Amino acid sequence: MAYHTGIYLLLFLPAVLLLYQLTPKKSRWITLLAAGYLFFWICSGKLVLYLLGTTLFTHYIAVWISWIKTKCNDETAGMQRTEAGTIKKAYKKKEKAILVFGICVLLGILAYLKYYNFFIQNVNVLLAQGGSSLALGTKQMLIPVGISFYTLQAIGYMADVYWEKVEVFRHPGKIALFLGFFPQIMEGPISSYAQTADTLFEGNPLTMENLAKGSARIFWGLFKKLLIADRLYLLVDVIFNNYQYHYGEMIVIVAIAYTTQLYMEFSGWMDIIIGSGKMFGVTLPENFRQPFFSKSAAEFWRRWHISLSSWFKDYLYIPLGGNRKGKVRQYFNLFIVWFLTGMWHGASWNFLLWGLALFLLIFIEKAGLGRILHRFPLLGHLYMMLVIPLNWLIFAVTDLGQ
Asked: Residues 364, 132: contact at Cβ < 8 Å?
């Protein structure tokens, strides 16, 4: 059930809005939760168990971390600073071990489902090139929709509890609704617990203002998706599937068309999703902020898929040290971020190379080119019009032989 289809816009969403308004305020979160799990079941069937399992696991890992914190505070109450400091360090190690365990389990499940076959296929290629007749077997994986999105949200929540940015809500229903809010469960945006959880749980009534703003945002998204992205897809598909018969200016045109199609399609989805949330009074984070007005690749990514780049910044780049430990460490941290950003998009070499190409551009900009581009904005815009379509071509071509 895609967000731009009639079954979602004309049946599912209006039905949920009606049931939500008819439900008593204190129980409206249950209506939203039920709608989220029904939506997930329609899209993935029995794989809804993955979402349920992730939710319960995440909740109890966070509760465990919170319990350790409380136990530490109770034990050190009234102690002198030196004595209390030693005990707090010991408890902090326990908290960190629990967090690492939780992250490893969630990432392990994600990696196994999405990347097991990719790993096996590449091992088989290496074995064949080495002259071995051994070939490892692949598996038919059942991958639920949105697993890449709700896994990152779950990890972010556990980390926020560990860093004491948010408090644990003892009822698992709140984390279940946070991870299972139906407008964003399939395509994002990736939100933090502090951004949406409280609003989702409040159960505020529908208002004409929110319904009007949400509807306008949905119609704008449909315009971008159906009237622009889907029309450009026809051109892009024909040229990409017959690239050997086209040269020069036609490849340039289709590269620009694909870049435009990708933006209109993804941002159109985000408009529909954010508009759907707005109808319930929930403000989801924006995912795009005029990315084509950028003057560098680094600035472009800060304006494109904002929720993903923010997640990697807050939960990976900064914990790795960010730019606080010298240039060499900063470049290494950026390499890790962009390597994983590429892999997050899919189990294919083109996504990995796309991420590494962006790292290379950002590396060159930080080495000096970025200062020139921002000093001469026109040059920066021309540079972006060249490198971004070329970079998206890497993203689009799944057969590296092409």
From this structure: no
Q: What is the pLDDT of residues 129-157, one digit of tens each?
A: 877 777 788 888 888 889 999 999 999 99
What dihedral angle (degrees, nearest 10) is formed by the CA atoms of 307, 309, 312, 313? -110
Residue 345 annotated in active site: yes
Cis ω on the peptide bond leading into residue 189 (within 30° of 0)?
Answer: yes
Residue 362's Cβ-side half-sphere holds a number of Cα atoms within 13 Å equal to 22
Catalytic residue among 246, 345, 374, 381: 345
Evaluate if residue 392 carries a pLDDT over 80: yes
The pTM score is 0.92
Band (pLDDT 50/70/90 cuts) for residue 60 is: very high
Residue 1 — very low, low, confident or very high, per pLDDT cuts 50/70/90? confident
Q: Which long-range contacts (CB under 8 A, 24 or more apart) does 327-333 make?
A: 330/366, 331/363, 331/366
Give tens-digit pLDDT for 283-333. Answer: 999 999 999 999 999 999 999 999 999 999 999 999 999 888 888 899 999
* Token pair of 192 as six digits: 């933090």
Interacting residues of 360 by C-beta distance below 8 A, sequence separation 6+: none
Can you give the pLDDT at residue 399? 75
Question: pLDDT of 67-90, one tens digit each?
Answer: 998 888 878 777 777 777 788 888
CA atoms of 268 and 259, how far apart (whole Å)? 14
CA distances from 171 to 55, 120, 168 (A): 12, 41, 9
